[in-house]
Amino acid sequence: MSDVKELKRISLEFRRLASNLLGTGYETADISLYRFKEYIDNTIIINDILQNKIKNVEIDFKECFPIESNDWCSVHIPREENKHIKAIYDLIEYIVSNNIQLLGISASYYCSSRKFVDIIQNFLNLTIKPLIDYIVDELSKQILLEEKINMPTVNLNHTQNSTVSLAFGSQQMVTSSINIENVEDIHKIIEDIKKELEIIEMDKEDKENLFDDLFDDFARPYKVTTGYTQPANIMKTDVKETENAYEIDIDLPGFTALALGIQKLIELVSPIIK
Question: At what angle do helices 129-149 and 81-97 cross, to 10 degrees?
Fold first, then answer.
């Protein structure tokens, strides 16, 4: 398993190459496809994704993507996804290894426009884009899985003077005591969370949305569900109530101080709204 930063770097590089390919011009089409294939072959994570999908799969790619026809060629997508992905990869291999110009093979497939660039892009969208989408999805799944592994778990003792324990996996990272005296404690925790959000490296729009989810709706009416109470629009958390504690997963991997602050806020609010 690779770390999150490495996975995100590869995902970014792959999406850039894929975008260059799908949006290629006539003069750059062949080199864009060559670079794309070279990257997926030589990048271990992506190559593993492909091999896990297409290893030992047998299909003649020409059944899906005819090369010659007396009329317009048509794409025939197999029912099995692994056969579809294998056929796309073999088509790319065929074009690159035989130094076939993309325009020549693209012109065999119907396109409403007769501009060279449109003909090529139409062909790429018909044939190669599903493989790109598959790789993007698989990389995203690996990133989510890795982030889930690193997601903090917080245990809260449900008493007046509470202890909050934050752990990553089985390792205890932070332990903090909370004394619930009055509403001022809640406001202090909110301000602490805001400060943590300010310094986090995050897309500006995502950060603003997170602010809205956490704070703009805080004063709104609460909705009550069995065993747990929360503001109507507060950010979702995975909450499990045990006999003596709450166990909560926060979807903010790596943001230790922020995660702890949110859990303190939940603990402070719960006795007030019950």
Answer: 120
Report whether 116 contacts 107 (CB < 8 A).
no
Q: What DSSP assignment string belongs to 161-225?
A: EEEEEEEETTEEEEEEEEE--SHHHHHHHHHHHHHHHHHS---HHHHHHHHIIIIITTTSPEEEE
- 63: its two tokens: 């059944």
Q: How many residues does the chain have?
A: 274
Strand partners, 171: 168
pLDDT tens by residue, 33-66: 999 999 999 999 999 999 999 999 999 999 999 9
pTM for this predicted structure: 0.58
CB atoms within 10 A of CB 57: 15
Encoded tokens for 81: 């996804």
User: Residue 273 is encoded by which pair of tokens?
Assistant: 């709204």
CB 77 within 8 A of CB 71: no
Q: Where are the domains of the chain?
A: 4-148, 151-273
For β-strands 171-179 and 161-168, DSSP reports them as antiparallel
pLDDT digits (tens, 9 = 90+) for 87-144: 999 999 999 999 999 999 999 999 999 999 999 999 999 999 999 999 999 999 999 8
| Helix, strand, coil percentages for the chain (3-state, nearest 5) | 55, 15, 30
